[in-house]
UniProtKB/TrEMBL annotation:
GO molecular function, one term: zinc ion binding
Protein known as: PHD-type domain-containing protein
Species annotation: Gossypium raimondii
Assigned keywords, A-Z: Metal-binding, Transcription, Transcription regulation, Zinc, Zinc-finger
One Pfam family linked to the record: PHD
UniProt-listed PANTHER family: PHD FINGER PLANT-LIKE PROTEIN, PHD FINGER PROTEIN MALE MEIOCYTE DEATH 1-RELATED
Family matches, as InterPro entries: MS1-like_ubiquitin, WHD_PTC1, Zinc_finger_PHD-type_CS, Znf_FYVE_PHD, Znf_MS1-like, Znf_PHD, Znf_PHD-finger, Znf_RING/FYVE/PHD
Residues of the PHD-type domain: 495-545
Record keyword Transmembrane present: no
The organism's place on the tree of life at top rank: Eukaryota
Length: 590
């Protein structure tokens, strides 16, 4: 994650607190300033550096994606989570889950108010916000309470939720129907994992969540434990007796014995076809899933493996000493490869294959694009403002001489003793807003608009109780010299009016029209993200306006020529009686 978004409309805070967990000694500079002595020799790694401690500190706050954690909190309690790198990002000991747990607890202890994150995370080389939204129903950061913040291209929270639900519940049946045509690689892979699962995989969510679960389980074992298998298949097993299962499996073993002269593997599909009349398809699937490890009458054991080329499980009989343990489950790397292939082929708009039906493909592409366009997530920590031994007041600041460009700062929590007066509130509110925001230097709180001209000596508890919110109004005597601190995003004004409906900067790539200076997304203007921004650009509105003017000028020219021809004809007809007169025609084209 490298973009910061969310609090650009707030006034500039005086302080920002950065929280960084370095990965290791990298970039040629030691990561620990306390180990640098006066001789610039690191006591930890014995490296000699010519960088002083102050320069080292500033260098850590630069745009650096090697940090395990980088978060920043403004002095008003609003923050950004900039970087999280787990084991795939270079962490030797901490996973991304552990780092996020630490960050979440830290924000809670510090009473942080709201934190944004720009989710551009990758997992196994894939867009994880797309994969996790389909498999779990929310982004990875949703595990810690981060919810939809704002969407790019004017997408709303309702549109995001609908896209998650519709894409997650998209049925796989339409994709697996091939009629008389041979199966594609995509269909083979989907059918393969359906055969591995003890429960039905009927939707995109079922499929991708199952693969993620297999990857997690592969860290412990290649196949699910027997206890897990028994638990997940209890409802299936109750439909048949143990004798039904054993009888059918013995028939399968006889088929494998017939193919035994030589290292002949029998595919799951072929074995099921031979035994199709011996039981129901559900019973056959159950027996095949638990066939590995069964003992044959000749003393051999059923071995199973995953065929990477056909995406199917194969069986054969093997002596126990040479049996490959749990070989019917694909390896972790193979599962990741299949997951990446399915995500690229089924969901990623950039690499999606031309599968059928085309209507389903277009629908999937539209929904996946919406999920990828929603990167900004937010968590509201809702700090507890209740204290029975004090007055807790949220103060909303208003300026007595406002302008249209003035920002509206978020309310600040003021904590006062129970005996505090209105004057105490004004004094403390003035101090808090001055300490937090740079533009409110020399602020003077004058009154409480909701309570009229109330005396400063009035006990505050009589007005608002021990908790509540109040508007305070004041003025800044040195305000004009501090206008550059008016907003975090800067004082430069720009206009965003894109055809997608966006009216403000959303972090996506934009360009401005060279005629009207209005900004819009490059993608909405038909410019691919991989293409360079043209040196000259005229938006569609200006193009249409110029086209209309061109048509007006053309039509006016035709009317003028017709009028001139008629006038000349009339003049030639009257030359005999008006030889001395002069005729002048003037044409004004607007």
């Amino acid at each position: 994650m490298k973009k910061t978004k969310g609090w650009s409309g707030h006034p500039v805070c005086k302080k920002r607190y950065h929280f960084v967990i370095k990965s290791s000694c990298d970039n040629g500079i030691c990561a620990n300033p306390h180990h640098i002595s006066d001789s610039r020799r690191c006591k930890c790694c014995n490296r000699v550096d010519d960088v002083d401690v102050e320069e080292w500190g500033y260098s850590q706050l630069e745009d650096n994606n090697t940090h395990l954690l980088h978060g920043v909190v403004h002095s008003n309690g609003y923050g950004h989570l900039l970087t999280v790198n787990g084991r795939e990002g270079g962490s030797e000991f901490l996973s991304g889950f552990h780092i996020m747990n630490f960050w979440d607890r830290l924000c809670t202890v510090l009473s942080v108010r709201k934190v944004t994150v720009m989710d551009v995370s990758k997992k196994y080389g894939m867009e994880y916000r797309l994969l996790h939204a389909i498999a779990r129903g929310h982004s990875w950061y949703g595990n810690w309470g981060y919810e939809f913040g704002s969407g790019s291209y004017a997408l709303t929270q309702d549109a995001y939720k609908r896209a998650v639900d519709d894409l997650s519940n998209m049925p796989l049946s339409a994709l697996l129907f091939q009629g008389n045509k041979s199966r594609t690689r995509l269909q083979n892979i989907v059918a393969f994992y359906q055969s591995l699962s003890c429960s039905e995989l009927s939707t995109f969510r079922d499929l991708f969540s199952f693969l993620l679960r297999l990857i997690t389980d592969s860290h412990k074992a290649s196949m699910p434990k027997a206890s897990k298998m028994s638990k997940s298949s209890t409802n299936v097993l109750c439909a048949w007796t143990r004798n039904d299962v054993e009888k059918l499996q013995q028939g399968m073993i006889k088929v494998l014995m017939a193919a035994a002269p030589g290292p002949n593997w029998v595919s799951r599909r072929a074995l099921k076809g031979v035994m199709c009349k011996a039981g129901s398809p559900e019973l056959l699937d159950y027996c095949l899933k638990h066939l590995r490890g069964k003992l044959a009458p000749n003393g051999k054991v059923v071995e199973a493996r995953s065929n990477l080329n056909s995406s199917d499980i194969e069986f054969r009989l093997q002596t126990p000493c040479s049996l490959l343990y749990d070989s019917n489950c694909p390896s972790e790397e193979h599962i990741k490869g299949d997951l990446r292939y399915m995500l690229d082929s089924l969901l990623d708009p950039e690499t999606m294959s031309a599968y059928r039906p085309y209507a389903t493909r277009e629908r999937v592409m539209d929904l996946a694009t919406k999920l990828l366009d929603c990167k900004q997530f937010l968590k509201d920590y809702k700090p507890n403002a209740h204290n029975p031994c004090a007055i807790c007041v949220w103060c909303h600041l208003e300026l007595s001489n406002p302008t249209k460009d003035d920002p509206v700062p978020p309310p600040e929590l003021i904590i006062l003793p129970l005996s505090a007066t209105v004057g105490d509130l004004k004094t403390e509110a003035t101090k808090v807003f001055e300490d937090v925001y740079a533009m409110f230097k020399r602020l003077q709180i004058e009154d409480l608009p909701d309570y009229g001209s109330v005396e400063d000596s009035i006990t505050l508890k009589l007005l608002i109780g021990t908790t509540g919110s109040v508007r305070v109004r004041g003025k800044c005597t040195s305000r004009h010299g501090l206008n550059r601190f008016r907003m975090e995003r800067g004082t430069e004004n720009w206009t965003v009016d894109c055809v997608c409906g966006a009216k403000d900067d959303d972090g996506e790539r934009m360009l401005a029209c060279d005629k009207c200076s209005v900004w819009q997304h490059t993608r909405c203007a038909g410019i691919d993200n991989a293409d360079a921004i043209p040196s000259m650009f005229i938006c569609m509105r200006c193009t249409k306006s110029l086209h209309k003017k061109s048509l007006t000028i053309t039509n006016s020219g035709k009317e003028a020529r017709n009028f001139s021809q008629q006038l000349n004809s009339s003049c030639r007809g009257n030359l005999g009686s008006n030889e001395g007169s002069q005729v002048t025609t003037t044409l004004i084209v607007r």
